[in-house]
Amino acid sequence: MRHDESRALYDRALSVIPGGVNSSVRATRPYPFFIERGDGAHVVDADGNRYLDYVMGYGPLLYGHDMPEPVRAAVQSHASDGPMYGAPTEVEVELAEFVARHVPSVEMTRFVNSGTEATVSAVRLARGYTGRDKIVVMQGGYHGAQESTLVEGGPDSSRPSSPGIPASFAEHTIPVPFNDVEAAERVFEERGDEIAAVLTEPILANTGIVLPVDGYHERLRELTEDHGALLIFDEVITGFRVGGLQCAQGRFGVTPDVTTFGKIVGGGFPVGAIGGRAEILEEFTPSGDVFQSGTFSGHPVTMAAGYEYLKYAAENDVYEHVNRLGERLRTGIADIVADQAPSYTVVGTDSMFKTVFTREGPDSGDVGGAGEDSHVCDAGCRQDESCARYDYCPKNGADVANAETERWERIFWQEMKEKGIFLTANQFESQFVSYSHTDEDVEETLEAYKEAL
Ligand SMILES: *Cc1c(COP(=O)(O)O)cnc(C)c1O
C-alpha cells in the first residue's frame, strides 16, 4: 500500500496546522492517511487506497458515507436556500419534536454545535438550576474538550488533566470510578448538598466501551434524587445508536433529568443538543437566566440532516441491520479471541464494538475449564455476574487503560490498516457498524482480525 500523497499532505499540514490535524485522535502513526472521499462503508485515501471504515467519523455516520436520498435532498435544499439566518426555522421545531417524541426523558431540547458545547451548557444549566457548584464525573469518561471535565485523580484529589486549566476549576469536579456504587455513595454522604449533578455516559464509550453493572445507574438515580442533584446522561455517542431511537436511557430504563446529544442527531454535520424536562430546560435564556446562545445553533442544514436521518431510521430496518452486524462481529471476534488471545475482552453493544487487549484473563477460551457448558457472554462483555469471564471484564476507565494499548496502536491497528480495514487508532475509541456495511464486509473483517490478532 502506497501512502506518498498522504505523506506529502501531512508534511504540508504540519507547517500550518498544529500536529497536522484538527482533532488530536486523527494523528495516527507514522502519519495519517488523508481521505479523499467516502463510498458507502468505505473511504478512499489520497493515494487511491480503499478501506472498509469502522471509524465512521467517530460516531455520527449511522448510514456510512452515502446519505439516504431524503437526507441528501433536504441537505441540498437547505444549503442552497440559506444556508443560515439568525432567525428561527421550522426544521428546528421538527427535530426538537422528534426527539421529545422518542427519548423518554426529553420534553425540550436546545440545539448547539458540538457535543462539547452540549456538555458545557448542561453543566452550567445544572449549576444554575441547583445553585450548587460540584459535578461528579466518571474516571475515564469523556465529555469533550471542556474545562469542568478534563480532570484526573480521585474524589479527593482531582486535578486538571491538561495544562491551561486552573487547578481551582478541578476542585469543583469529583471523579469517581464507573460501576463503583460505594464510591458514589461515599461522595454523596460527604458532600451531597454541594453536588449539582452526576454527569456520566450511560455506557463508557470513549474508553473501550464499558457497560454498567446491574443496578449502577438505578443507584445513581436514587442518590441524585435523594440529594437534590441532577442526573445528566451524556448520550453524545450512545444517543440514537444504543437502544435505537429511545437511546441508551430507554434501553436501561433509567430516566435522567438532562441528556446531552451530538454526533448522530446532526446527520453528519456539526451538532450538539441538551434535552430534558421543560422545568429544567426553561432555565436557559431567554426563558430563564442561565446564559446560553450561539450564532450557528440550530443551523438549518444540520437540523434538516438530523431530522431526515432520524426519520429514515424510524421508517426503515436501520437499527435491526446495524445491530445484527454488530452482534455478528462481536461473536466472530470473540471466537477468534478465545482461540488466539484468550486474555483479550470483546466489548460493545448494538452497533458498537471493540476488542480491549486486557492483560489479565483466562489462559484459554475454555473459561474456568468448564468446557462447552461454561456460560460466557458470547457477543461481548455484558457485565453479567454469572458469566465465567466476569472478573476479567473491564469495569472502569482504569481497567481499560491497563490494557496493551501500545500493541493496539503500534502493531494491530497498523496491520488492519494494511489489510484495508480502518479501525479507531487507539485502544479507547469505539468502532461503529453503519447501514452501508454488509455481511460480506463482516466476513472480510473477521478474516483480517484472525490474521492480525
Ligand atoms: C464525542 C463526544 C463528546 C464531544 O463531542 P464533540 O462534538 O466532539 O465536541 C462528548 N461526550 C461524548 C460521550 C462523546 O462521545
From TrEMBL:
<dbReference type="InterPro" id="IPR005814">
    <property type="entry name" value="Aminotrans_3"/>
</dbReference>
<keyword id="KW-0413">Isomerase</keyword>
<comment type="similarity">
    <text>Belongs to the class-III pyridoxal-phosphate-dependent aminotransferase family. HemL subfamily.</text>
</comment>
<feature type="compositionally biased region" description="Low complexity">
    <location>
        <begin position="153"/>
        <end position="166"/>
    </location>
</feature>
<comment type="pathway">
    <text>Porphyrin-containing compound metabolism; protoporphyrin-IX biosynthesis; 5-aminolevulinate from L-glutamyl-tRNA(Glu): step 2/2.</text>
</comment>
<keyword id="KW-0663">Pyridoxal phosphate</keyword>
<dbReference type="GO" id="GO:0005737">
    <property type="term" value="C:cytoplasm"/>
</dbReference>
<dbReference type="InterPro" id="IPR015422">
    <property type="entry name" value="PyrdxlP-dep_Trfase_small"/>
</dbReference>
<feature type="modified residue" description="N6-(pyridoxal phosphate)lysine">
    <location>
        <position position="263"/>
    </location>
</feature>
<dbReference type="InterPro" id="IPR004639">
    <property type="entry name" value="4pyrrol_synth_GluAld_NH2Trfase"/>
</dbReference>
<dbReference type="GO" id="GO:0042286">
    <property type="term" value="F:glutamate-1-semialdehyde 2,1-aminomutase activity"/>
</dbReference>
<feature type="region of interest" description="Disordered">
    <location>
        <begin position="148"/>
        <end position="169"/>
    </location>
</feature>
<keyword id="KW-0963">Cytoplasm</keyword>
<dbReference type="InterPro" id="IPR015424">
    <property type="entry name" value="PyrdxlP-dep_Trfase"/>
</dbReference>
<dbReference type="InterPro" id="IPR015421">
    <property type="entry name" value="PyrdxlP-dep_Trfase_major"/>
</dbReference>
<dbReference type="Pfam" id="PF00202">
    <property type="entry name" value="Aminotran_3"/>
</dbReference>
<dbReference type="GO" id="GO:0006782">
    <property type="term" value="P:protoporphyrinogen IX biosynthetic process"/>
</dbReference>
<dbReference type="InterPro" id="IPR049704">
    <property type="entry name" value="Aminotrans_3_PPA_site"/>
</dbReference>
<protein>
    <recommendedName>
        <fullName>Glutamate-1-semialdehyde 2,1-aminomutase</fullName>
        <ecNumber>5.4.3.8</ecNumber>
    </recommendedName>
</protein>
<keyword id="KW-0627">Porphyrin biosynthesis</keyword>
